[in-house]
What does this fold into?
Amino acid sequence: MAAYDYDLFVIGGGSGGVRAARMAASLGKRVAIAEESRWGGTCVIRGCVPKKLFVYASQFHEHFKDAAGYGWNVGETRFDWQTLKAAKDTEIARLEGLYRSGLDNHGAQIIDDRAILVGPHTVQRVGSGVTCTAERIVIATGALPNPHAALPGHELCISSNEAFDLKTLPRSILIAGGGYIAVEFANIFHGLGVEVTLIYRGQEILSRFDHDLRQGLHAAMEEKGIRILLTDVIEQVQRADGGGLVATTLSGQSLAADAVMLALGREPNTRGLGLEAVGVDTDERGAIIVDAYSRTSVPGIYALGDVTNRVQLTPVAIHEAMCFIDTEYRNQPTAPDHELIATAVFSQPEIGTVGLSEEEAARCHEDVEVYLARFRPMKATLSGRTDRMVMKLVVDAASRTVVGAHILGHDAGEMAQLLAIPLKAGLSKEAFGRTMAVHPTAAEELVTMYTPSYRIHKGERT
Ligand code: NDP
It folds into this structure.
């Protein structure tokens, strides 16, 4: 008789958890996976997927305007928020069904319940109270929006969780934060016709990105009509007399809006999981501490994805799950590789980036070459748009390796995915130069920037 009820019990049915459970089940392991909410987790239910659908929805406004330059008379247009929400719900339900059937088809037991740890090999279902044992337990419970509980009036604010399902589309919104979510939603709401103000504590939005992209996106957003307030934070949110909300800021401004959205980072979802009782160590932010192989401080318990706060991205959680499977069930110890992860911000215009920003490269390498192109994309010519596209390659002069590639403009996310391959392969600038251009495209600029725009020596631009 088997010593444990299961070979593997996974807590959390998001990207990382589902992948680990499905792969283990496909290898013949006895697997159970528990999810307290909906299958697919943040990415599918209230993150990447609905976000991208909303990005598409919000772009039509500009497409309709641009059409005139190309000879189209679009006529009167009208946006219906309820129609978009319903269509999004249908698509999310379809995807959730695929997640469930994927698990089911591979023989994993699906448990629609919250599960917590009650022992090093024991899990309890909170709803039914039933306990079971497993040789290995994977915690993949993701992260939750930082509620910013210290902010007076935070309970009046929404997070990205609620933004997808608002009963009515607000006429105006104030968004706090300068990261991925704040910037993406500022553009989404603006495109849907909402008056948007973004408030960010730093000197420039998107603090971890290359400065040319940050400044270029900021300028483009302001030109569209998005108001951006820098070096300021919300200190209080109250109900306004005539309805709506009013936020008071550190600099003394009073900002009225129908809705206030907080996009101030995401916290690992570890509260109440029974980690302390079992001895699973967490850091000061509540993230589960893991070693290079996603092992926690308790043998037999593993953690992957956002709950470990390594890199909060869906493909990273999936990769960590695959490494867990290789290590534990295929006898091929594999540590997740977190180097050179390409990423996109689905702002409008989009950002696509991989590798070191110019500033980071200048800190790591004595001599850096920067190849920079700013141009009006062909797409913007007949439409009469003033859009400027930015493309930048950052090269370590000593090794000739391209260490960073940064794009602002249409399809930047798609380009970042492809650029991740040569950067990951460690290809040289000369390899880019030997590559034939595809004409006419915006991306051809990446292989036709022949001479450096400037050089950086020991951190100083020359
Ligand atoms: P980010 O870490 O991207 O941004 C958080 C923002 O909140 C930063 O601008 C930060 O400022 C600011 N902030 C944090 N704490 C405070 C505070 N106390 N007061 C004022 N400002 C504060 O987090 P998001 O919430 O936008 O997104 C969470 C994660 O989800 C991202 O890190 C990303 O990994 C992932 N994500 C990825 C997407 C994609 O791939 N396209 C889309 C959406 C999310 P500062 O910069 O100064 O620290």
